[in-house]
Structure formats: structure tokens, C-alpha cells
Amino acid sequence: MNGWILAATVELGGGGAAALWGVATGPPARRLTAQNLTTSVVCPALLLLAQGYARPAYVDLALLLALLGPVGTLVFARLLSGEQVSGPNVRGATWTAAGLDAAVVVAVCAAVGPGRSMVKLLLIGTLLIGGNIIASRALAGGFRGVGGG
Amino acid sequence: MTRRTAPRAFLLAAGELLAWWAGLALLWLVLITTVDTLERIVGASCAAAGALAARAGRRAVTWR
Fold this sequence. Notes:
The complex is a heterodimer.
Chain A: H1 3-24, H2 28-52, H3 58-79, H4 90-112, H5 116-139
Helix pairs in contact in A: 1-2, 2-3, 2-4, 2-5, 3-5, 4-5
Chain B: H1 2-31, H2 37-62
Helix pairs in contact in B: 1-2
């Protein structure tokens, strides 16, 4: 076990437990928010594990998750749009997750060094953080201008 | 009138397709693990199909 795998274990354990608790308890809006944040927990863990095991192919899983996670959340947000209640701590959780994602991406980028791999990591980070913020805004009742379509 | 605008429309469409193709091919080259001839050929082909789909999608959204 090296530092990357240890970091992934701590990150996945702590964040996964928090997300599981959020998904399993509380009103639907809170559960949806926690479900959305699982992407922001698992994706950086995959990046850390790819670095820890020196398997660049594992990064593809993180890329897929960063793409499909927010899309799934948007489907849920659309299905349950009639009963959305903005949670009190959505904003804090969203920005905490975004900060965690950014920190992990920057750390892995520093370890990888400049090159195509770094561009790929930055793309994953952009997709992850952007998707997280957009999905959180949709869950919090945002985008009213496009809600009636 | 149409004889004057037709070449311009064609050039605009070709330019848009080329822009989509360049972006998608660049994305392909960034995301693959090893860059070799086969990957370049497959990437260029997929980017061409993707460029057609992207333009169709963009037009479908714009004409709504």
C-alpha cells in the first residue's frame, strides 16, 4: 500500500459513508443530493487508485463516471421536479465536493507531469466539477427558465 | 439569389463540420492511451461520424 491507495481508502471510506448516510435517511431532496455527491466521491477515488496501482486504464472509469453521473442525476431531477425542496446544506456540500475533486485532480496532475495524461485528467476534473455544480443547481430548483420544456 | 448564397451556405456547413471534426479528433487523441496509426485512422473516422451527428444535433436544437 502506498500513499495514493491510502488516500483513496480514506477518501472513499469517509465520503462513501457520508453519502450512504445521506442517501439512506431524510427527505427525498436530501437523498437526491447525496446520490449526486456519490459521483464526486467515487470519481476522485478512482483517480487516486489509478495512480496508486500505476494503471492508467483505470482513469477511463473515472471519465465515464464523471460523464454519466451528472446525467443520471439530471434524469432524477426531471422525474421528481414536482416535489423539489431546496435542502439547507446543498450549497456547502456541493462546494466541499468540488474542492475535494479539484484537490485530487491537482495532486494527480502534479504526479503525472505535463503531457496527454494531464490533459485527460484536467478534462475529467472539468467534467466532474462542472457536472456536479450543474446537477446540484438542477436539484436545488435552478434553471427555471428551461424547466417547462 | 440562391445561386449566390448556395456556395456560402456550403462553405459554412463545411467549415462547421471541419471544426467539429477537428475538436472531436483532438479529444480522441487526448483520451487514448497509445497513439499509433490504427488509432489515428479509427479516431479520424469516428470524429467524422461524430461531426455529422454534432451538426445535426446543433441544427435540431437551433431550429426548435
